[in-house]
Design brief:
It is elongated and about 50 Å long. The chain has one domain. It starts with 15 loop residues before the first strand and ends in a 6-residue tail after the last strand. The protein has a 3-stranded antiparallel beta sheet, with no helix packed on it. A two-stranded antiparallel ribbon has the order 1-2. It is mostly beta strands.
């Protein structure tokens, strides 16, 4: 991610549209558009955070 990326959250639903193209032998044969939000996931020991916010405790997970 770049420095100017605006992350998605329920309070700030920033969205990006990605335009994709598939070329075969230099000819464009297919295209698609995908709209999505971006999040930054992190961890510190057994705690996870989303977008750098307060850590989440995940309990009773299967290993």
């Amino acid at each position: 991610m770049g420095e100017d990326v605006l992350l998605w959250s329920e309070y700030e639903p920033n969205l990006y549209t990605f335009k994709l193209g598939l070329k075969i032998n230099g000819s464009l044969v297919d295209t698609a558009e995908v709209t999505t939000g971006l999040r930054k996931l992190g961890s510190d020991g057994d705690k996870f955070n989303i977008n750098g916010a307060k850590p989440l405790c995940v309990e009773n997970t299967m290993a």
